[in-house]
Amino acid sequence: MTSQSAQVRKKILKGLELTYQRLIKHKIERNLDLVISKNGKVIHIDPKQLQK
User: What is the model's pTM?
Assistant: First the structure.
């Protein structure tokens, strides 16, 4: 991996982490469950469990 692509990767990961934190915050504020697919099944997760 080149230096430039490593920097781009780092920026993308930082952006994804920020988006994840905002999603969890939004779900907690609105008192909603986080809905995801796990092994092909839909599950509901309390976002308070995922809060850092």
Answer: 0.81
Query: Among residues 42, 39, 41, 35, which one has the least CA distance to residue 50?
Result: 35
For 2-52, what is each residue's pLDDT tens digit? 899 999 999 999 999 999 999 999 999 999 999 999 999 999 999 999 886
Q: How far apart are the first and last CA of the chain?
A: 31
The span from the CA of 42 to the CA of 52, in Å, is 23
Instruction: Enter the DSSP assignment of 1.
Output: -
- Residue 28 has a CB neighbour count (10 Å cut-off) of 15
- Count of CB atoms within 10 A of residue 52's CB? 5
**HSE of 9, CA atoms in CB hemisphere, 13 A:** 6
